[in-house]
Amino acid sequence: MPVHRSFPARPTAAGRPDPQASPADHEPSTPEPSAPEPSAPQPAPTPGPADPEPIVPEPHAPPLTHPATAVRSRTGAAWVGICVGALVLVALVVFMMQNTAPVEVAFLGMSGSAPLALVLLIAGLGVGVVALVLGSTRIAQLRRLIRSDRRRADVR
């Protein structure tokens, strides 16, 4: 049975409005007392039970239950890394295509001529290898530290 929206829904035992309540459920069961005549003295209010809280209709949209920020995961981080790597690769290819002029290179007593793009590519790969070795060494060091801390905690 559809509920007429001009009436607030009646609360259930949980304190939430009952969506199945009909408009007839909201009409008072006793008639309203008539207003006293103006010449009659007004009786003083008597202390009694507090007035019930007003009925507040439930909002039409359910509240958000998910966090406002996106959840981050390793898969998402890997996807971002792949996208950034692909963009860098495209930029590197464009750079190599535009810098094909030969340059003179001297390193540790050796000298020679090579395209600028190739020289810079070899230098970049060298930096990457050095960073990989240093990073791997640090990761291994931290793993050994964690392993020794766990062994100490197990002994205690």
How would you sum up this structure, described in words?
The protein has 156 residues and is mostly helical. The chain has helices at residues 74-98, 116-155; strands spanning 102-107, 110-115. Strands 1-2 form a two-stranded antiparallel sheet. Strand 1 (102-107) and strand 2 (110-115) form a beta hairpin. Helix 1 runs antiparallel to helix 2. The two termini are 68 Å apart.
Mind sketching the topology for me?
Elements: H1 74-98, E1 102-107, E2 110-115, H2 116-155
Antiparallel strand pairs: 1-2
Helix pairs in contact: 1-2
What are the main properties of this structure?
2 helices; elongated; 156 residues; 8% strand; two-stranded antiparallel sheet; mainly alpha; 42% helix
Sketch the major β-sheet.
Answer: 2 strands, antiparallel
Count of discrete alpha- or pi-helical segments spanning 4 or more residues: 2
Name the quaternary structure: single chain
Structural class: mainly alpha
